[in-house]
Amino acid sequence: MMTKRKTVISLIVNLLIFIITVVVFISYFFVEPNILIKNGWESLKYFTTDSNILTAIASLIVAVFDIRILQKKADTLPKAVVLFKFIGTSCVTMTFGATILFLMPFYGTMVIGDTLFIVHVSTPLMALLSFILLETVCHIRIREMLLALLPMYGYGMLYFIMVRVIGEANGGWKDFYAYNRGGNYGLSWLLMGTGCMAAAILPCVLHNVVLKISHKKAEKTTSAALPNDSHE
User: Fold this and answer.
1) Which site among 87, 188, 222, 227 is 20 to 30 Å from 53 CA-CA?
2) Could you tell me the pTM of the whole model?
3) 16: Cβ–Cβ under 8 A, 6 or more apart, which residues?
C-alpha cells in the first residue's frame, strides 16, 4: 500500500511532469525552440520529445490512480502502471544521460538552454526520483526490466534507417545526434547501446532497493506494535 503522504506527493509530481511536458510541446508550435527544432511536429523525430511524451502519459496515468487511492477506491498502483512509468522513466534517464555525457561535449550548453533544460534535465530527474522514491509498490524483475529497452532500441533502429540507410539527401534525417562524427558510427552505437542498458538498470535497481528498505521498515514497525508474548 502507498501511504497518504507518498500518494499526495506522487500526485503533485506526476501532474507537474504531465502539465510541464504538454506546455513545452505546445510551445514548439509558437516559437522556434532551438537551432535543431524548427516547428512542433518536427520535434517528434527527436528521442527527447518522444521520451518526454511517453513519460508524461505514464505520469498522468499514475496521477489518476493516485487520486483513486486518495478516494479509497484503490489500495495501490497496479503493476502494469508501475511498469509503464518505469519504461518512460528509463527513456528519459537515457535522454538525461546522453545529454550530459554525449551531446553537451558536442553542442555545448545550448542543449540545456531554455526549454531544453526542462526536457533534458528537470522532467527526467523528476520522473526518476518519483519512480525510485514514491512509486515503490512492487518489485521489478529482470525480464520486466528488458521492456524498457524496446522503445530505446526501437528508436535506435529508426534513427539508423533514416540517417544511414536512407540518408538526408534522399529525404531521411540529418545526423542531428552526431553519431557519425569522425566516422566513428560503430563506436557511437556501442556506447548508446550500453547507455540504454544502464538507463534501464539504474531506475530498476534503485527502485527495488528502496522497496526492500521500505518493506524492512514496515516489518519493524509491525513487530514493535505487536504485544509482548512473554509469560511469567
Assistant:
1) 188
2) 0.89
3) 126
